[in-house]
Design goal:
Blueprint lengths: L3 H28 L4 H25 L5 E3 H13 L6 E7 L3 E3 H21 L7 E11 L4 E9 L16 H13 L3 E6 L5 E9 L4
Parallel strand pairs: 2-4
Antiparallel strand pairs: 1-3, 4-5, 5-7, 6-7
Helix pairs in contact: 1-2, 2-3, 2-4, 3-4, 4-5
The structure holds adenosine-5'-diphosphate and magnesium ion (MG).
């Protein structure tokens, strides 16, 4: 007999394969576009689809609809690091821990946008630097929270930048997912020394 768990895993596997096909098609199309802006936009779309595929792949390896998000965060970091080969180093500190699938998918998309921005806007061509993702599980047992910061040591935000109204599609996606879907808060501030710090505070289920 095929169990319900095995069926769900198989479905996640198929969804992952289909998303990877979509990403591959977008990548092929991106290669044929001569305009830099057009190509970059399609490459962003490839990574957006890719980050959702990463979550489904992880879900296809698990029995329940929960995932160890640290693995996902590391894979998203590796995927986004391809924007700036070798020059800017990404790393994770702390633990995201176990998250429900409903949290993991929007969070992986948010992380993708924020990391893409750090690499695309935080540094000039040829700059070296670091982008650090740090995660802490906090709050009380009744009201558990996940605190995530993404900090770069790059050039910093533009003059007069308001993270709650500014931006294009990327920040719109971040605000919609964090404040709408995840019921959390989002902010962007200048990092203490230099660069930018993005702060996410998200309600989650207790880890254990
Ligand atoms: N880490 C960062 N360092 C410097 N500027 C940033 C950073 N993150 C976001 N920004 C600014 O926010 C703007 C909006 O980002 P976004 O909405 O993702 O649109 P896009 O990436 O397409 O420009 C960027 O164009 C950039 O000016
Ligand atoms: Mg962006």
């Amino acid at each position: 007999m095929i169990t319900k768990d095995a069926t769900i895993r198989e479905i996640h596997h198929r969804v992952k394969n289909n998303l990877q096909t979509v990403a591959a098609l977008l990548r092929l199309q991106a290669r044929r576009i001569e305009s830099d802006r057009g190509r970059e936009a399609l490459e962003e779309a490839v990574r957006r689809v890719g980050s959702i595929a990463i979550v489904h792949e992880t879900l296809s390896q698990n029995l329940d609809e929960r995932v160890e998000f640290d693995d996902i965060a590391d894979r998203v970091l590796a995927m986004v690091a391809e924007i700036s080969p070798g020059k800017v180093t990404g790393r994770r500190t702390g633990r995201f821990g176990i998250l429900d699938a409903e949290v993991a998918t929007p969070l992986s998309m948010v992380l993708t946008e924020v990391l893409q921005n750090a690499l695309e806007h935080g540094f000039r061509e040829g700059d070296t630097g670091t982008v650090e993702v740090s995660a802490i599980r906090g709050g009380t047992t009744k009201e558990a929270r996940l605190l995530v910061t993404v900090q770069d040591d790059g050039i910093g935000l533009p003059e007069g930048f308001d993270p709650h109204t500014a931006g294009n599609l990327g920040l719109q996606i971040v605000r919609t997912l964090v404040e709408g879907e995840l019921g959390g808060t989002f902010d962007m501030i200048p990092a203490p020394e230099r660069g930018t710090r993005v702060i996410l505070d998200i309600p989650v289920r207790a880890d254990k």
